[in-house]
Write a structure and sequence with these properties.
mainly alpha, about 0% strand
Length: about 300
């Protein structure tokens, strides 16, 4: 590659590279730096110059001895794994279902599924707060009491006998309704970009709907499947807004309802242990990078990137 072409590429990439540098690389470097200091209560003058591995040692001790932190790790694994499956497969199912609908009906359904994503986080979380509220006024309890399914109100996310499944189910449901809409948008647009002739030809050859989806449609949206899967994976690892509100309002158990990302937030802004929070955040970034690379390999990203046959 000659210098002129390299300069042209860097010129067009420079805005994106600047954004990545300012909002991702520099904060990551600062997090790594702060993780090796005993910073707390934002006392920069007292702690920033002191380098130590104390925060990482403290985290390792908590992971091996504190049952509450073990709950956080288990919750993070279950929440990320199950919600990822729900978001990707749910988004794909919605996209396929609306693709085969009449356009006006399809538009209505797609608009309805976008409402959770368009609703402010606080309002959306408040709706689920009242839905899972543990007394008779809660929407779910009220409905089940009237149907005779239960004879007394149930605290779905805080009753010890229902944990950890109760808290996990609430987190998955709340975040799943938001996540599937993202997959639906990407997959639907990808399906609409498939040449109409391919679908017509498959129908003429006698392909059923399932055969059409499996052999014609899914192979042509594999890029989008990889993109949504990786994006959702990394997003779920770092999401905490809805979860924070649900735990603060007492809808879910404090520890069974806390993910690692929320644990980082609480350490930084609730307990005031910024050094520990930075160390925990650095670990989360490392785990996200490793999982991202593994996912790209498992999803066959390299096979979809063949070498060009000639110079363009």
């Amino acid at each position: 590659m000659n210098k002129s072409r390299l300069g042209t590429i860097l010129f067009f990439l420079s805005p994106a590279l600047a954004l990545v540098l300012v909002f991702y690389i520099i904060p990551l470097i600062l997090a790594i730096y702060i993780g090796f200091t005993p910073l707390r209560d934002w006392n920069l003058k007292a702690y920033l110059g002191k380098f130590t591995t104390q925060s990482y040692q403290y985290l390792f001790y908590l992971l091996t001895h504190d049952p509450d932190v073990s709950k956080v790790v288990k919750t993070t694994i279950v929440f990320t794994t199950v919600t990822l499956v729900v978001n990707v497969l749910g988004g794909l199912a919605l996209a396929l279902a609306t693709f085969f609908m009449e356009e006006r009906v399809s538009l209505t359904y797609r608009s309805l599924w976008l409402l959770p994503r368009l609703t402010p986080v606080a309002v959306y979380s408040l709706l689920w707060y009242y839905f899972f509220l543990g007394d008779a006024s809660g929407t779910l309890n009220s409905l089940l009491l009237r149907l005779g399914v239960i004879d007394h109100p149930v605290s779905w996310g805080t009753d010890p006998s229902l944990q950890p499944e109760g808290s996990w189910l609430i987190l998955i449901v709340v975040n799943g309704f938001v996540g599937v809409s993202f997959g639906m948008i990407i997959f639907y647009s990808a399906l609409k970009s498939i040449p109409r002739e391919h679908i017509i030809a498959a129908r003429i050859d006698g392909a059923t709907t399932l055969q059409l989806i499996r052999r014609v449609m899914l192979p042509q949206i594999r890029w989008h499947l990889v993109y949504v899967t990786i994006w959702q994976l990394l997003s779920l690892l770092t999401t905490f807004a809805h979860i924070f509100l649900l735990t603060e309002w007492g809808v879910v158990d404090r520890w069974w309802g806390t993910t690692w990302a929320l644990y980082v937030f609480n350490e930084a802004f609730t307990t005031g242990e910024q050094g520990v929070a930075a160390a925990a955040a650095t670990i989360l970034v490392a785990i996200g990078a490793v999982l991202g690379i593994i996912s790209l390999r498992l999803l066959g990203f390299k096979k979809m990137m063949p070498e060009p046959r000639g110079e363009l």
